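=== Given protein ===
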Amino acid sequence: MIPKRLLIPHVLQSAQLIKTEGIFRQIGNIYLLQIDNMTDCMMMNMAITADDNHPIVSAMNNYYSCNSVDEDYHNMALNTIQLAENGADSLPERIHYGRYWQGSQIFLRPLLVITNYFGIRIINYIMLSILLVWLLLLIASNFGRTVSLLFLISLLFVGAPIVPLSIQLSVCFYLMFISSIIIMKFCTIQNSLLLFFIIGAFTSYFDFLTIPQITLGIPLIFLLLKNRVDNPSKYVIILSLSWFLGYALLWSSKWMIAYLLTGNDIVDTVKNSIMLRLSNSVVFHGKTINIYNLFNLIFIKISWWIQLIIFIFVLVIFYVYYKYQKGMKFIKDNSWLLIISFIVPLWYSVLRNHSVQHIFFTWRAILVTIFSLMLFVYYTTKKEDYHG
């Protein structure tokens, strides 16, 4: 219901900045440190495509405006500038993105009233830094400074310092930090089932299908470190299912609610999207190719990152083996961390199209794998209690 005229000046400034930076900006010319300015620009485009005279319909349909369906992504900044300067009538195409809740609009639209893209980035850095420091202090006080340091190292491995530059990438980090802080401060095993259902639902509502796995894996680790249980592996499975139910049920409810409120049936679109995301084909430079051929092209760009991760993994295995004389009990007691480490590879294998097509941001989900493996090594080579 916020009048779009209040947003337009800051959207225009933001789109001009994105045009200058490039829609796929790479920090230090590193492929895996790419900022998805295009999606951020699309979100701003949605914000002023929305008709404030029909807010419910706009919120359900989530249209963005462009000149051409075939080139809408590459010209997103130019289209958004034209939209801001000349209005929606100057662009012939409306692209429907109603299969997601697009919940980030409830923060983005008010922010665009008071500031532009640069200002939002500053706010991101301030807020995410506050949440990170708060969480690190809670980790250190509950589990020791080593665990806090391992979490910080894991964040550095996935390029977290540049995440606040992107609106869409920041969403899951906000959810991960806030959920983890709530768990550290208030949560017990008894109320965790409902909490993880809610975390999954919130992730589905706010996230644009970027790295939702971190809102499950990281809070799950902190919950089970904080609450000692006899069979933690069982809770990993149960709480993961609870998170997934919250995620899937709220997401699918959008399709029914949108149909009831607008009469716009998007089930066929959703089915096509799901089949695409589960397929072995991807679109690359306008052509549909086999996912494995694209992976080979991407691997050339990121091979040294892969080699580094493999090297670290081999070191981890040898280190654990070297410390094996401490007994199988320590391996068994901490095996739940290994289960959590497989959440991300499992997700990648199921949603292989999306994971490879957008690997320049989906790769950051390995935060869960890196942190859980580091903790596995730490706790299997340390006889003191978790809280020691």
Notes: The chain has two domains: 4-114, 117-380. Residues 117-380 form one domain. The chain has a mean pLDDT of 86.
